[in-house]
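Researcher: Going back to the complex we discussed earlier. I've cleaned up the inputs and rechecked each line, so this should be the final set. Can you rerun the prediction on the complete assembly and write out the structure?
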Amino acid sequence: MQSDESLIEEIKNGSQAAMEVLVKKHYKNIFAYTYRKVGDYHLAYDMTQEIFIKMMKSIASYNGQGKFQHWLLKIAVNHCRDYYRSSFYRRKDELNEIDYQLKDERENVEDLLSKKLESVRVKAAVDQLPDYQREAIILKFYQDLKIRQIAELTEAKESTVKSRLKQGIDKLKLLLKGGDEDEQVQTSRQNRHR
Amino acid sequence: MNKFKQADKTDIDELDDIFDEKEYEAIEKELSHYLVKFPDEHKIDATIDTLRQYVPDRKTQSPSVMERLVTIIQRAGTEITIVSKSYWIASTILFFLGYLIANQPNNDPLLTVIFLAPLPFIFGLLEVFKGRENGLLEMELACKFSAHEIILSRLFLIGVYNVTLNTVLTISISPVTGRPLVEMLLTWFTPFTFFVAIALWLSAKFKGQVFVTTFLGLWLVLTVLVLSNNHWMEAFLNPSPVLHLIFLGIGILLNGIQIRQLIKKYVTYEGGARVEVNY
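Model: Rerun complete. Updated structure for the full complex:
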């Protein structure tokens, strides 16, 4: 298999085929990160496309220093952060309470396809984590990065990353252990909106 | 992409101040249940199609004149088999016909060479553009050569063949004329450059049969005009050296212009840049 660097060189020289190979090579990794970060299949699909557009727009400036995968992941991390800062997300967040039931049903349909209730349970817990904690956990456990690499990617101190991981994992354990309690809270919350 | 493999010792080590090993593995196991449903190939391809517009334009490499010439000559070698046999046979027959006419006592051998010289090239032009005529140029493009390279290679091939035939004919009649060989060669070569330039111009304007008919019409009129006028015949056979050189220069220049036009035309043929093909 061709290296990322040689594919990038070919893309810079105008090869469509090299772009196709490079995107296919990294697509699933970026999609998985984005999906776990935003928790919505359709939004993750659109955002993954936007991340690759950003990659193509700045590929000329990629100087080959550092692993390409990390360079691309950094674009994904920043893009997801931009999304959470966007007015679109804030508006959506305000409507979230009203939309709760609908969103839940849609997610259930998508996730039922995988027929993995465990997956739905963990996803629901991860989705409830604060952004920065979720980001650190995804990068550590799903992207398999070292603390130092997460710190570089998220432009934070290593101690901050550790702290986010610690707080995130603690909260996650509570959420996963208290699944039943949460379900009761959710039901009463939905009932409030009926 | 699921990264869940057995916990790396260093992964645990760097977090050992906040988790113990068992706790880390338990979290990792729990998180591994979170699966991702990936978009299907069709949707990934849609993203790739969207990205195509952001791929920079293919850099056109600008090889040196020498490199281009070498490519065209190499290509011409493979064109020998593509040019039809009937062309090679017809040209050779013309050569023998020219030899016979030139040796007739009533004819001026040099004048015969002058007027027969461009004919193999004219018929050869039909071979050069046969892909265009038959709508096969796209198929011919399905290789790593561009349209103008194919055209130039064929022009080079028939040009070389034509000049070789004429030179051999000139050498074979030189004992009859008693003139210096170089002078004889230049005498037919100067009008030849004009004939070729006109032929190239016409071939760019008209399709095969129309072009050949038009050219042969012009050629016949000129031949009759010259042969029926002693003054013109003399001017063709014995031009002053200065005039000869001026006309030769103009002829070569006209050919250069026509070939340049041809390259410009076929460089943009069907977006005519080099075509990437998987063999």
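Model: Worth noting: The longest helix of chain A spans residues 87-114.
Researcher: Good, that matches what I expected from the previous run.
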